[in-house]
Amino acid sequence: MAKPQGFAWTRRKGGDVEVSHHGRIAVVLRGRKAEAFMVEVADGDAQEVMARVTGNYKRGNERTARQHPRNSR
User: Fold this and answer.
1) How far is CA 61 from CA 22, 48, 52, 55, 71, in A?
2) From CA 9, how far away is CA 45, in angstroms rounded?
3) Interatomic CA distance for residues 68 and 32, integer angstroms
4) Separation of alpha carbons 6 and 11, rounded Å
5) CA-based R_g, the chain, Å
6) What is the mean pLDDT of each run of 10 residues along the chain (73 residues)?
7) What is the pTM (predicted TM-score) of this model?
């Protein structure tokens, strides 16, 4: 599976965190979510964290799941 890329984040004055993907704002985190995000970015892969937070990621099994007999209805 390819690693996520194209994400960036900025911290606003009020403590909010703005996450963008390829230059477009994807999500704005406020309060506890913004604080938790900052901790996760410091500890792990920032691109992975931002992909998960925005919901913009794939698991790599979409094609396989589509072809499964259970899903062929």
Assistant:
1) 24, 17, 16, 16, 13
2) 13
3) 40
4) 17
5) 15
6) 81 94 92 94 89 73 65 65
7) 0.70
